[in-house]
Specification:
Blueprint: H1 18-38, H2 48-68, H3 74-79
Helix pairs in contact: 1-2
Length: about 90
């Protein structure tokens, strides 16, 4: 049994989300820059600037990749089901 992959992307992907995409990018990039800035308070004797830097940098990368970037078929793939149809996580059909 072969599984055919449809390489066509939807023509409306990302439309209507410009403001929210810019806002999320600005907040998360700000978190990343703040994590680098926190290192300026380090004098080598205390650990907290490194911990804060690590925590902020982790969140700046984890939130978009692990939470915001979830695919609509993530639930089906986690269950081990391969489907060509795109379904929403809330199981709402159109």
């Amino acid at each position: 049994m072969s599984h055919e992959v449809n390489n066509q992307s939807p023509t409306d992907a990302g439309r209507g989300h410009l403001l929210s995409n810019i806002l999320v990018f600005a907040v998360l990039f700000g978190m990343f820059l703040l994590s680098i800035y926190v290192l300026s308070w380090s004098d080598g004797t205390n650990v907290w600037p490194f911990g804060v830097c690590l925590g902020l940098a982790f969140l700046a990368f984890f939130i978009p990749q692990g939470i915001i970037g979830r695919a609509d078929t993530g639930y089906n793939l986690a269950e081990g089901n391969r489907t060509d149809t795109k379904e929403t996580s809330a199981k709402v059909g159109s």
